Amino acid sequence: MKMIVAMVRPDKLGDVKQALAEVGAPSLTVTNVSGRGSQPAKKGQWRGEEYVVDLHQKVKIETVVADIPAEDVVDAIAEGAHTGEKGDGKIFVLPVEDAHQVRTGKTGPEAV
Amino acid sequence: MKMIVAMVRPDKLGDVKQALAEVGAPSLTVTNVSGRGSQPAKKGQWRGEEYVVDLHQKVKIETVVADIPAEDVVDAIAEGAHTGEKGDGKIFVLPVEDAHQVRTGKTGPEAV
Amino acid sequence: MKMIVAMVRPDKLGDVKQALAEVGAPSLTVTNVSGRGSQPAKKGQWRGEEYVVDLHQKVKIETVVADIPAEDVVDAIAEGAHTGEKGDGKIFVLPVEDAHQVRTGKTGPEAV
Ligand SMILES: Nc1ncnc2c1ncn2[C@@H]1O[C@H](COP(=O)(O)OP(=O)(O)OP(=O)(O)O)[C@@H](O)[C@H]1O
Ligand SMILES: Nc1ncnc2c1ncn2[C@@H]1O[C@H](COP(=O)(O)OP(=O)(O)OP(=O)(O)O)[C@@H](O)[C@H]1O
Ligand SMILES: Nc1ncnc2c1ncn2[C@@H]1O[C@H](COP(=O)(O)OP(=O)(O)OP(=O)(O)O)[C@@H](O)[C@H]1O
Ligand SMILES: [Mg+2]
Ligand SMILES: [Mg+2]
Ligand SMILES: [Mg+2]
C-alpha cells in the first residue's frame, strides 16, 4: 500500500479529482495548505510598501491505494495538475503498512 | 515508530481523543480536511438547482507512537469513530524513522 | 528521500523557514493544525465557567529532501523552533519512495 501526497494549484483540484476517478482511485483527502518550491520569494507592492510573497496557496491531496500501481496514480495527478508554468506542484509516494476501514472493521488492502 | 493517520467524522473527535488517552497515546495533531471515500458523489438540490456533494468535512488525526503497538492505537481510534454508517472513516499506519522533541533535544522513541 | 514533518509554534514559522533556507532546504508545505503533546489539558476560566484547553494552535511544516541529510533538516527546524518552554513541538522523519515534479515530469531525487 502507498500514500500518494500531492501539492497542486487549488484551481486544478477538479481536474485532479476527475483524473483520479478515471484511473480507479476516487478516494482522497484534501487539505488547504500554503507552500513554496525552489524558486526565490516574489516581491510585490502594496500601498507603496514592498513586500515579499513567499508562500503560495496550494491544495494537498492524499490518496492511499492498494491495488493500483502508485505510478499510475502519480501520472493521473500530474496530468490533471499540469499547466507548464512554475508552481504546478509536487507529488510524493510514501509507504503505508496497514489500513483500517472504520465502518466495517476491514484491514489491509481490502480496507483502502 | 509509527504514524497513525485517521480521517474521521468531525463530531467524533472528542470520542477519539478520549479513546487515545485511555490507550496511553494522548499526543496528537488535528487538521480540518475534506474528502471522499469509495461511494459515488451525492446529489442534492439548492434553490431548485441540482448540485453534487462530493467532498465531506472530516478531521485528520495524526498520532506518532513508539512504545504502544500501532494496532492498539488503530483499535482505539476505530472504537471512538464508529457509528456504523457510511463515511465513518479510514485509518492508515505509516513507518516513522526518527523523532525529535524540540524543547529537550531528545531523539528516537524517547522523543515521541 | 525523506519527508520531515514538524509541528511547531505558529510564531516560529518565520525562524524555521529561514533556518531551512540556510541549510539548503527552502521548499516546504505549511498547514494550520492544532494538537497536544504529553502534558495534561490546561484549565482556564471564561465568564465564570471553567473550561479545558486541550488543543493548541500549531503549524505543521512538511519538507521533502533528497540530497541533504534528514538530520541536518531536523536540526535546522529544531533551532528555528526552540524557545525552551513546553509546547515547542515535535519533528518526525518518514521515508519517501518517489517524487515527481509536475511542471517538468522529472522523477526521483531530481524532482524534490
Ligand atoms: N521539497 C518539497 N517539500 C515539501 N513540499 C514541497 C516541496 N517542493 C514543493 N512543495 C510543495 O509544492 C508546492 C508547489 O511547488 P512548485 O511546483 O513551485 O515546486 P518547484 O520545485 O518550485 O517547481 P517549479 O519550478 O515548477 O515551480 C509548493 O508550494 C509546496 O507546497
Ligand atoms: N483511500 C483513501 N485515501 C485517502 N483518504 C481516504 C481514502 N479512503 C477514505 N479516505 C478519507 O476518509 C474519509 C472517510 O472515508 P469513508 O469512511 O467514506 O470511506 P469508504 O471506503 O467510502 O467507507 P464507507 O463505505 O464506510 O463510507 C474520506 O472523506 C477521505 O477523507
Ligand atoms: N506523538 C505525537 N504525535 C502527533 N503529534 C504530536 C505528537 N507529539 C506532539 N505532537 C504535536 O506537536 C505539538 C507540540 O507538542 P509538544 O511540544 O507540546 O510536545 P511534548 O511532548 O508535550 O513536549 P513539551 O514537554 O516540550 O511540551 C502538539 O500540539 C501536537 O500537534
Ligand atoms: Mg516553484
Ligand atoms: Mg464512504
Ligand atoms: Mg507539550
From TrEMBL, chains A, B, C:
Pfam families: P-II
Matches recorded under InterPro entries: N-reg_PII, N-reg_PII-like_a/b, N-reg_PII/ATP_PRibTrfase_C, N-reg_PII_CS
Alphabetical UniProt keywords: Cytoplasm, Phosphoprotein
Annotated GO CC locations: cytosol
Biological process annotations from GO: regulation of nitrogen utilization
GO molecular function per UniProt: ATP binding; enzyme regulator activity
Modified positions (O-UMP-tyrosine) in chain numbering: 51
Family from the record: Belongs to the P(II) protein family.
PANTHER family (alphabetical): NITROGEN REGULATORY PROTEIN P-II, NITROGEN REGULATORY PROTEIN P-II HOMOLOG
Protein name per Swiss-Prot or TrEMBL: P-II family nitrogen regulator
